[in-house]
Amino acid sequence: MADDAEHCGDSPRKEGSGRDTGEEGIIYSKLKNGSLKLYELEKELPPLDAIRARREFIEKETGTTLENIGIFSIDIERVVKRNCENMIGTVQVPVGVAGPLLVSGEYAQGRYYLPLATTEGALVASVNRGCSAITQAGGAQVRILHDGMTRAPVFAADSIVHAKQVADWVAAHHEELRAAAESTTSHGKMTGIVTYITGTSVFVRIEFDTKDAMGMNMVTIASAKVAELVAQGTGARLIALSGNMCTDKKPAAINRIMGRGRSVVAGVALSHDLISRIFKTDAKNLVEVNYRKNLVGSASAGSMGFNAHAANVVAAMFIACGQDAAHAIDGSTCITTVDLTDSGVYIAVTLPSLPVGTVGGGTGLETQQECLRILGVAGGGNPPGTNARKLAEIIAAGVLAGELSLLGALAAQHLARAHQQLGRG
Q: Nearest Cα to 181, choosing from 209, 201, 154, 155?
């Protein structure tokens, strides 16, 4: 792999450098006149050469040198087939570690170093401080509340009477639909199906246990089979395989209430002494900051998330661990609570929607695999599903660390000073 990295990192070709000869010149001319499309290069050239030719074409067309984008170490054969079309290279994101973080979950038990991919100065340091506090307090308690990935096809009925008939048909044929869905996958299991009617639109929200996969491809294929049977059995017209009642990659109340992906809660009890020693504040200040900022402030703003910066940690761990980065928005719907106790506070984060997996998608890339191995969750679990749930528990504990640290900094009026010292601009 190192040879590939060096090969792809050669100095970018410059127009007029004398290198546009033979096959390279022909390829460029074809791309220029449109007889060869950028997406067709892999049909003409090996993957590495296709990526280089595409990158050099973009360099010339835009007058931009892409020397650093052309340096990478990941398996290109796999990436161009499964992860990225029209590839020209990679963008590097710094990865820091926070921890060790002591976690006491049903699947994650022990001390973990959290890989965080970010360009935001102060984030890793903040999470690291939260990890220290949680570990000194005896660790984060974590539990999976619900596990299910969803897809919701939308159908058009002829009338509201017909719409109700469609919903009734789905309810009456649950087992038939389940068998059809599960015939498309050797791993997934359909765990629920619910209908929602709005006028003549009928949404069929189907839920699956996707084991260690995040599962969007799995549930889409299975839902297509279900949708086919619903249309045949009811006469309703399938309008879209995803009708946005899933809901995917958008903040949504239905995910907050029903859950999507892995729904997780994490909490820790902090003593008065620990709050004073690590955060330089007290329990009452932590409670008030959370109440007025995370709860009242979020409600006043009409936010769907009631937290300090949960998406920060979710996004950083998602990028490092090969998750779909767009699903970081689901993490933003976290609710952070701080309860005053006789001994200090109990702080908890509730994340209703963490679509994570340890197989498939970006988890197969070498750099992301290494981050998953740091956490001991790479690949499929034994039994299936345990690795993905373990990852969800660790991420939730990381979010708890981030929330705790930022609330502490705000309560002690240290936020601006910390960012200034750590160079966040």
A: 209
Q: Is the pTM of this model over 0.90?
A: yes
Which residues are identified as catalytic?
Answer: 120, 324, 419
**Averaged confidence pLDDT in the chain:** 92
State whether residue 389 is helix, strand or coil: helix
C-alpha closest to that of 377 among 366, 391, 365, 367: 391
**Identity of the residue numbered 91:** V
**DSSP codes joined into one string, 21-36:** -HHHHHHHHHHHHTSS
Q: What is the pLDDT of residues 390-417, one digit of tens each?
A: 999 999 999 999 999 999 999 998 654 5
Provide the angle, in degrees to the nearest 10, between the axes of the packed helices 386-411 and 272-279: 70
Q: Which residues lie below 8 Å from residue 156, measured CB to CB, with a gap of 6+?
A: 200, 201, 202, 236, 237, 239
Domain range annotation of the chain: 2-82, 95-147+251-421, 153-240
Whether 296 contacts 326, CB under 8 Å? no
User: Which token pair is 4?
Assistant: 């590939």
pLDDT tens, 6-63? 344 433 333 333 344 567 789 999 999 999 999 999 999 999 999 999 999 999 999 9
Tell me the fold of 153-240. Alpha-Beta Plaits (3.30.70)
Query: What's the pLDDT tens digit per position in 181-230?
Result: 999 999 899 999 999 999 999 999 999 999 999 999 999 999 999 999 99
Beta-carbon count within 10 A of 412 CB: 19
Instruction: Report the SS3 class of residue 98.
Output: strand
Report how far residue 312's alpha carbon sits from residue 318's, in angstroms, rounded to the nearest whole number. 10
pLDDT of residue 75: 87
Residue 78's pLDDT band (cuts 50, 70, 90) = confident
Return the amino acid letter for 6. Answer: E
- Given this structure, which CATH class describes domain 95-147+251-421? alpha beta
Question: Residue 158: helix, strand or coil by DSSP?
Answer: coil
